[in-house]
């Protein structure tokens, strides 16, 4: 499958997944709100989500994907190795799930010590329903990344759509049975808890089953195989030891962040708003960075395996420039539309005004995180998980130190936005360190051209975003029609982003930006398919 075709499939699936995911979140917020009960569910449901993130960005991307790429090129296409890999992964995930469920009350206490006793009790009840997601999330990520490495991209991108549909139906049923905006901690019966938590887990089960069907139809046996001796797990374990270190660093930093924000839970924006802002941030990240960057990563891994260093550097430059053209305007447009975009995931205009700074703080990190995606995965392509551990460690130490400082110095109403800003600042520092370390490893990376391209994109995006924000002000701002309800907020967000994008494209066309033609060709290719 060529790069354009793969990117098109991933982008289409990712877009559909993200849009249905936004609808899912809107229905969930309508059901349980964004304050006390919403925070309790968020913390419980975040436990398996954290496992997915750590597995997908750490062990799978850094260790397993390069190995699967190598074995897929063998005569048997990996049909001997992959069932053993799946069996080993399933065994580890099952053990992790059982242990997590036994430790559920302690895990909730660790993550949300700032909760009241009643809020922790509700969060623990949710956790018993949500923690089985660890197994199914892990299997979904393991099968999906393995299929990606074999150039079967579409199922991994499209399966979450079914998850979102299941969740929309389940959360909608909760509203019908128990009512809406159940932020209060009073009246949460076991049936109500089971409907919210069980729905969230059922959706994950469905998407994992879809990939299991695709896995079997791809010709890879779907059966347990415990004959692990001599297949290279030992070497993978050595690489995974550094990845496990990254897992611990990231996990500890995340715990500190959630514990800090739990101090603000109740009357102020807290972990639910943080999670919803992250969801909006992840729409352009997933649609642009993952859909374009994932096929590039597969090619970079192939270049590294064949020692084609010149081609690898060219792909790094091309990937950064292509990603940059899209993510720069995405960040600028969403910053301009931050208030109406936040209104989509809140139940009142006043809540949106409080939530918008959290989203803005995340969005300033979109550009550096897009570049870091390519830089980090270049290390992984060379089988190097040791170096990423060190720049992740540096980032984690900074996050912890600055988050603790924020708790001690920032008023509770601004605490969540401050933690988000800390995340972005530390991510930028991590990127600079990663680039320096990669240059020491490979020599000159040829980053002058993509850096100049990013500067041009930013110069074009600033006036485009300013005009988009002007549209928000012209509509009435905080008292205007864009904040009247969820549907008006969605329309306002779209309008602001569309205006910003058109101005941005016009400026790039006047400047005769060379990357624009490539981007237009890529978009045409997607729509033609």
Automatic annotation (TrEMBL):
Membrane-spanning segments: 21-44, 50-73, 85-109, 121-144, 156-180, 192-215, 236-258, 278-297, 318-341, 353-375, 387-409, 415-438, 450-474, 486-511
Domain of life: Bacteria
One record GO biological process: regulation of cell shape
UniProt KW keywords: Cell membrane, Cell shape, Membrane, Peptidoglycan synthesis, Transmembrane, Transmembrane helix
Principal subcellular localisation of the protein: membrane
Subcellular localization(s) per the UniProt record: Cell membrane
Molecular-function annotations in GO: lipid-linked peptidoglycan transporter activity
InterPro entries in alphabetical order: Lipid_II_flippase_MurJ/MviN (IPR051050), MurJ (IPR004268)
Keyword tRNA-binding appears in the UniProt entry: no
Membrane topology recorded in Swiss-Prot or TrEMBL: Multi-pass membrane protein
Pfam family, one: MurJ
GO cellular component entries: plasma membrane
Protein name according to UniProt: Integral membrane protein MviN
Organism of provenance: Microbacterium aurantiacum
